[in-house]
C-alpha cells in the first residue's frame, strides 16, 4: 500500500511541488500572475505552486498576487511566507477593480456553489455577473477560468464521460450560472480579443476534502453509502492546479476548453468497499444505481499534459490513512451525488 502523509505540512509540500512540465512552461516567459479567489479550497496551494514553479524556472522577479477576502489570517500568513503577494479584496462588494494589479496572466477561481438553490441570485452574481467585470478589467491578459463538469448532461458510465464536444445541458441554477460564466468569458474573447482558457473540473481531491473524503468518512463512521449515483471521477489536486496554470499557455481568442479530471471512471460501491477493507469497517450500501452520472472524458487533458502523478487507487489508500490518523478535514462536503442540480 502506498504510504501517505502524517501531517498537513507534508500534504501541502507535495501539493506545491511543481512538475518539470510546469517549470518548462513558465521558463518560456510567464510574467506576473493574478489569482482571483485565491482563498478557497484550491487557491492557496495553486498560488504557492505557481510561486515555486516560477522560482524553479528562473523567474523569481515575476510576482504572484493572491486576491481574496481571506477570512483566515493563517492562510494569508502562509502565502506571504511562501513569497506570494497577498491582496485582501472583496471582488463582489467593490464597485471598482482598478486597485487590482495589472498582470499578463490571470486565474479566475471565484465561484458560488453551495446555497445556490436557496439564493440563486447570489450564484448568478458571483458565477456570471462578476466574470464580466473581470473580463473587462483584464481584457489584455490571458485568463484561465475555472469551471465545472456540471455544465454537461449526465451520461452513462459506459460512455467514458462527456467530452468537450458534448453540448452543455446544465441542470439547476448552479450549473446554469457556471455556463453563464463560460459564455461571458467567451464574449470577451470574441468581442475584445481576450485570450481565454476554460477548465471544467470534477472533482479535485486533496485528502482534507473531496469525494473520497466524503465516502471514506461515511464508511469510517459506519454510515450508509448511497449508490444512486453509481460512478464518479476524481483527480489529485496537485495535478488539477498544474493543469489550470499550464492552460494559460493555451489561452486563445478561440477559447481553449478542457475537461480536468482523472482518467478512471470509479464505481462508488467499489470505492466504498475498498475503504471498508482499508479501515476495517463493515460497509452498508443503500440506494438503487441510476444508469447515468456526471462524468467527464479527460482524454484531451491527458494528451496535452500527461497523466496525473497520483492514481485514484493511491488516492483511496492515502485517504484511508488520513482518516484513520484523524488528520484535519475541512468539513465541506462536495455533494457529488446530487442529481437534481440543487446545491
UniProtKB/TrEMBL annotation:
Protein name listed in UniProt: Nucleoside-diphosphate-sugar epimerase
Domain of life: Bacteria
Amino acid at each position: 500500500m502506498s504510504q501517505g502523509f502524517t501531517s498537513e505540512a507534508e500534504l501541502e509540500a507535495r501539493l506545491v511541488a511543481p512538475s518539470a512540465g510546469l517549470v518548462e512552461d513558465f521558463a518560456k516567459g510567464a510574467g506576473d500572475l493574478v489569482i482571483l479567489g485565491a482563498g478557497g479550497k484550491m487557491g492557496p496551494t495553486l498560488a504557492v505552486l505557481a510561486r515555486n514553479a516560477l522560482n524553479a524556472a528562473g523567474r523569481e522577479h515575476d510576482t504572484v498576487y493572491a486576491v481574496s477576502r481571506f477570512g483566515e489570517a493563517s492562510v494569508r500568513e502562509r502565502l506571504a511566507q511562501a513569497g506570494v503577494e497577498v491582496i485582501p479584496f472583496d471582488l463582489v462588494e467593490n464597485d471598482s477593480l482598478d486597485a487590482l494589479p495589472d498582470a499578463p496572466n490571470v486565474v479566475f477561481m471565484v465561484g458560488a456553489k453551495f446555497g445556490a438553490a436557496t439564493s440563486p441570485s447570489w450564484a448568478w452574481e458571483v458565477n456570471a455577473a462578476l466574470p464580466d467585470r473581470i473580463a473587462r478589467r483584464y481584457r489584455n491578459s490571458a485568463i484561465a477560468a475555472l469551471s465545472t463538469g456540471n455544465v454537461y448532461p449526465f451520461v452513462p458510465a459506459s460512455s467514458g464521460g462527456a467530452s468537450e464536444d458534448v453540448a452543455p445541458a446544465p441542470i439547476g441554477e448552479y450549473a446554469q450560472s457556471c455556463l453563464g460564466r463560460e459564455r461571458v468569458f467567451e464574449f470577451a474573447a470574441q468581442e475584445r480579443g481576450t485570450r481565454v482558457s476554460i477548465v471544467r473540473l470534477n472533482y479535485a481531491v486533496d485528502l482534507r476534502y473531496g469525494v473520497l473524503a466524503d465516502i471514506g468518512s461515511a464508511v469510517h463512521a459506519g454510515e450508509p453509502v448511497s449508490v444512486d449515483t453509481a460512478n464518479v471521477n476524481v483527480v489529485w489536486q496537485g495535478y488539477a492546479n498544474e493543469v489550470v496554470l499550464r492552460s494559460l499557455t493555451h489561452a486563445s481568442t478561440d477559447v481553449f476548453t478542457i475537461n480536468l479530471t482523472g482518467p478512471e471512471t470509479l464505481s462508488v460501491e467499489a470505492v466504498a468497499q475498498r475503504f471498508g477493507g482499508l479501515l476495517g469497517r463493515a460497509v452498508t450500501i443503500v440506494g438503487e444505481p441510476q444508469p447515468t452520472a456526471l462524468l467527464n472524458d479527460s482524454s484531451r487533458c491527458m494528451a496535452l499534459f500527461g497523466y496525473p502523478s497520483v492514481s485514484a487507487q493511491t488516492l483511496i489508500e492515502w485517504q484511508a490513512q488520513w482518516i484513520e490518523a484523524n488528520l484535519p478535514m475541512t468539513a465541506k462536503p462536495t455533494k457529488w451525488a446530487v442529481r437534481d442540480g440543487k446545491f
